[in-house]
């Protein structure tokens, strides 16, 4: 059987990269692979997590001859402190993103730039938080909800409100283990305090605080970010789009939105549809304005508008190397500081918009909610004006693009999976049909594939191989972030991908009309995955740690990913990693993250840098869960 046309190969994806590398060489531009070579071999102390610079007596590096830093901290303390600091940074990133969006919700108004698009979700959150709704204006309710949400960051007592959404068993584990998160900022500050020179040197307690801080992210900041984004911009629904660099157009003004915060990208997308601006583009000789997304912003705007996706993390330079990008405008997180310099080799304008992400060489336009629409129109006009500066000799657009089906938040998944049989349908929908399919062995389980791509390994290869092999083994996949983008580029985010599926999974996909990889959104939306696993566990009548569902980050790279991995483990789900965390210089830390956390949360990491071996590990883990459940 020949693969359907929509499915590509890793070799084709790599051929596109090679073509663009030639374009880079032609303009003497440096790209990440040049810098990988310049940075290789990597520092062994950094790789092992055993370099400390937490005070100016150091930096101290641990060796056989010098097993302790000047203060006496050993490899375990140093690696654990560095690890906890990564969790704190990752938690801060997702949570600060959420806080910004909460401020936008607080100031939303019918006359303003930001309105409420999902009233139902707002009302349901208001009910959950006991905000009066009867006879009240929806914007007054929004303000009260936003105020409560903002208090989650700094309330003087109590724990995170969303913790009550977890299974009762999970809540008990968190309470008994002392890892129920208090205010989000409190957990981050405690993590930073614990890791200050002269405080905690016992690795186990640093790991415990890592779990607690991460729950403040997954069941706090990230969950708030996702909820409020849905309220403001609409809960995503299933729609079709396209992905990969072939979505850039030769004869249109191309604008790439890159980053994470939809407060910015939503407005740019809206501005690009204004007739006055599309007409203006035509006066400049272009056929129109083509907005495309990159990284997690791509996921956000694809799920809500069907905006096409140019690619994932390691494609950010490639987009500029096509020579047809009039503007790349960015907000926060995962943006290469190399981009302004690269943009200078072409006509591309590089615009930053957030005070959180200032980059030398960029044009900075500080985006403000009060003036957002006018600013977005100005930005789009600037891109249109730049169209005439495009140099035909530098244009090189790889033809590759694939159809993709996106937009499966938890609500959509439950709706679709409930279609397996109608016998258990209740008002809210139920996971029982999906559970029945798992119990019967038609589906063996589910894997959440998340995270970045990373030049430490062959980029995208691990994702691609793991996804294909899991599908063959009747494992349903949910994906977010740059992992979802790999599936898009490969053509796997599509009904055609059933070509790779085992008989059981193929039958389910055909029956309920879903692709075998369900696109759940951006990396902040891994909170949706926690609610999905929780919904399955509750309908099953067990805890999350018992269900045959796991997480997998084959090529993770960011500190956000470290925080995410911790909150997934805290939720009781094993996490399979294809990149080793930077703690290998401490045997105790390696034991703590793979086995030690199991005694606390019932889950841990399984690390294997060989994707085929990692798949074997995942399948064994899922089968062990099934056996324990007696299925
Ligand atoms: Fe060295 Fe201790 Fe200072 Fe770290 S905190 S740099 S190990 S003296
Ligand atoms: S953008 S954190 S590279 S998934 Fe969310 Fe992609 Fe990883 Fe950034």
Quickly list its features.
Substrate Binding Domain Of Dnak, Chain:A, Domain 2; globular; 631 residues; 16 strands; single chain; binds Broken Fe4S4 cluster; six-stranded parallel β-sheet; binds iron/sulfur cluster; alpha/beta; Rossmann fold
Mean pLDDT: 95
By secondary-structure content and strand pairing, the structural class works out as: alpha/beta
Largest sheet: 6 strands, parallel
Tell me the count of domains: 3
CATH class term of the largest domain: Alpha Beta
Which strand-content bin applies to the residues?
A: 5-15%
* Distance, first to last CA: 32 Å
The CATH architecture of the largest domain can be given as 3-Layer(aba) Sandwich
GO molecular function: 4 iron, 4 sulfur cluster binding; anaerobic carbon-monoxide dehydrogenase activity; hydroxylamine reductase activity; nickel cation binding; peroxidase activity
Cofactor: [4Fe-4S] cluster
Binding site for [4Fe-4S] cluster 1: 43, 51
Protein name: Carbon monoxide dehydrogenase
């Amino acid at each position: 059987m020949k693969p359907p046309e929509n499915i590509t190969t890793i070799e084709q994806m790599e051929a596109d990269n090679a073509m663009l590398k030639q374009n880079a060489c032609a303009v003497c531009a440096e790209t990440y692979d040049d810098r990988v070579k310049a940075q290789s071999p990597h520092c062994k102390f950094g790789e092992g997590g055993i370099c400390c610079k937490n005070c100016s007596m150091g930096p101290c590096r641990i060796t056989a001859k010098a097993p302790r830093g000047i203060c006496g901290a050993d490899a375990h303390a140093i690696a654990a402190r560095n690890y906890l600091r990564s969790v704190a940074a990752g938690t801060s990133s997702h949570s600060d993103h959420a806080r910004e969006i909460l401020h936008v919700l607080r100031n939303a108004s019918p006359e303003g730039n930001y309105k409420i698009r999902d009233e139902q979700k707002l009302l349901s959150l208001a009910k959950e938080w006991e905000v009066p709704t009867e006879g009240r204006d929806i914007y007054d309710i929004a303000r009260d909800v936003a105020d409560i949400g903002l208090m989650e960051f700094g309330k003087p007592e109590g724990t995170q409100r969303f913790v009550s959404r977890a299974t009762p068993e999970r809540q008990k584990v968190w309470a008994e283990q002392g890892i129920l998160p208090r205010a989000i900022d409190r957990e981050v500050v405690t993590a930073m305090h614990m890791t200050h020179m002269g405080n905690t040197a016992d690795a186990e307690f640093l790991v415990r605080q890592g779990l607690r801080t991460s729950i403040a992210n997954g069941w706090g900041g990230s969950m708030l970010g996702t909820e409020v984004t849905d309220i403001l911009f609409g809960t995503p629904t299933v729609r079709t789009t396209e992905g990969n660099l072939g979505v850039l157009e030769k004869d249109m003004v191309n604008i790439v939105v890159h980053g994470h915060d939809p407060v910015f990208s939503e407005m740019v997308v809206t501005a690009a549809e204004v007739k006055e601006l599309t007409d203006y583009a035509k006066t400049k000789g272009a056929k129109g304005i083509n907005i495309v997304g990159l990284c997690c912003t791509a996921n956000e705007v694809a799920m809500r508008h069907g905006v096409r996706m140019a690619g994932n993390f390691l494609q950010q330079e490639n987009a500029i190397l096509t020579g047809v990008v009039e503007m790349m405008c960015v907000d926060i997180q995962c943006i290469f500081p190399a981009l302004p310099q690269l943009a200078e080799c072409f006509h591309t304008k590089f615009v930053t918009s957030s005070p959180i992400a200032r980059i030398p060489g960029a044009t900075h336009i500080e985006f403000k909610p009060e003036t957002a629409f006018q600013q977005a129109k100005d930005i789009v006009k600037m891109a249109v004006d730049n169209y005439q500066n495009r140099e035909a000799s530098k244009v090189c657009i790889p033809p590759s693009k694939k159809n993709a089906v996106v937009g499966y938040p938890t609500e959509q998944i439950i709706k679709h999976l409930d279609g397996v049989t109608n016998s258990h349908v209740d008002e809210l929908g139920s996971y029982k049909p999906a559970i029945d399919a798992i119990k019967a062995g038609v589906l063996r389980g589910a894997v959440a594939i998340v995270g970045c791509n990373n030049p430490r390994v062959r980029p995208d290869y691990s994702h691609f191989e793991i996804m294909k092999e899991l599908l063959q083994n009747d494992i349903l996949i949910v994906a977010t972030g740059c992992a979802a983008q790999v599936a898009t580029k490969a053509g796997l985010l599509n009904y055609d991908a059933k070509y790779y599926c085992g008989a059981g999974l193929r039958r389910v996909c055909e029956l309920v009309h879903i692709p075998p990889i369900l696109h759940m959104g951006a990396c902040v939306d891994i909170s949706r995955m926690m609610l999905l696993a929780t919904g399955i566990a509750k309908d099953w009548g067990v805890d999350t740690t018992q269900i045959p569902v796991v997480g997998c980050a084959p090529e993770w790279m960011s500190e956000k990913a470290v925080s995410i991995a911790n909150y997934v483990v805290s939720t009781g789900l094993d996490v399979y990693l294809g990149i080793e965390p930077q703690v290998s210089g401490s045997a105790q830390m390696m034991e703590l993250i793979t086995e030690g956390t199991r005694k606390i949360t019932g889950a841990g990491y399984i690390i294997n840098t060989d994707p085929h071996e990692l798949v074997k590990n995942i399948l064994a883990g899922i089968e062990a869960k099934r056996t324990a459940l007696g299925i």
